[in-house]
Structures are given as C-alpha cells and as structure tokens.
C-alpha cells in the first residue's frame, strides 16, 4: 500500500480466516479504500461478505461472466440459472 496503487487484487483474501480476523482485515481494506481512493478486485465465494463490501458483482462460470449487478441485485434477484443455484446453495 506504500506505493499507493489504484487497484488491488484480493483473491480469497479472507477465506481461511476466522470471523474475528476476517472482520479486522475487511476493516483494514476499507480504511485503505477510503483514505487512498483504492479500488479492489475482490474474488470471493462468501456472498455475505461480498454483499457487505462490494459495490458491483460479477458472477463467473467457466471463465465467462454470466451475471453482473449490485450485490443486492445479484443475490436477491439473480437472473442467470448458475447464479440462482449459487445463491440457493449458500442461503
């Protein structure tokens, strides 16, 4: 973060962490975002975390984007069958 990047890629950045540490990491990422105008490419399977942290969501299947929208649009009104199955399996 010292070089003030415009974008940071977070690939499953919190997947192996317990909930307390996960919240600390997300708070840290959020504070960096607000203070330095950083954007994140946040790759994650945790839809609750995605809903809380992300502004836009892309759902991918087999390397292709199958759905795009706000977290609430994608989670509560999925249009693609793959997205529907993904959401139903988690919620």
Task: Considering the chains and any ligands shown, give keywords for the structure.
91 residues, alpha+beta, two-stranded parallel sheet, two-stranded antiparallel ribbon, 45% helix
Q: Could you give a quick summary of the protein structure above?
A:
With 91 residues, the chain is α+β, with helices and mostly antiparallel strands.
Describe the model.
- It is globular and about 40 Å long.
- The protein is built from four helices and four strands, in the order βαβαββαα.
- The model has no long low-confidence stretch (mean pLDDT about 90).
- Strand 3 (about 55-60) and strand 4 form a beta hairpin.
- It has a two-stranded parallel ribbon.
- The relative contact order is 0.15.
- The N and C termini lie far apart (about 35 Å).
- The protein has helices spanning about 20-35, 45-55, 70-75, 80-90; strands at about 5-10, 40-45, 55-60, 65-70.
- Helices cover about 45% and strands about 25% of the residues.
- The chain has about 90 residues and is an alpha+beta fold.
What characteristic shape results from the CA principal axes?
Answer: globular
Biggest sheet record: 2 strands, parallel
Share of residues in helices: 40-55%
Terminus-to-terminus distance: 34 Å
- The structural class is alpha+beta
Side by side, the strands of the main sheet go 1-2
- SSE topology string: EHEHEEHH
Question: How many beta-strand runs?
Answer: 4
Share of residues in strands = 15-25%
Our Rg estimate from Cα atoms comes to 14 Å
Mean pLDDT: 90
List low-confidence stretches: none
Q: Quickly count the helices.
A: 4
């Amino acid at each position: 973060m010292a070089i003030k990047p415009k974008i940071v890629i977070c690939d499953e950045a919190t997947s192996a962490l317990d909930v307390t540490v996960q919240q600390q990491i997300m708070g840290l990422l959020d504070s960096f975002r607000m203070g330095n105008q950083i954007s994140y490419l946040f790759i994650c399977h945790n839809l609750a975390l995605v809903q809380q942290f992300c502004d836009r969501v892309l759902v991918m299947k087999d390397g292709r984007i199958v759905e795009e929208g706000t977290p609430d649009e994608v989670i509560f009104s999925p249009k693609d069958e793959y997205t529907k199955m993904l959401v139903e399996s988690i919620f």
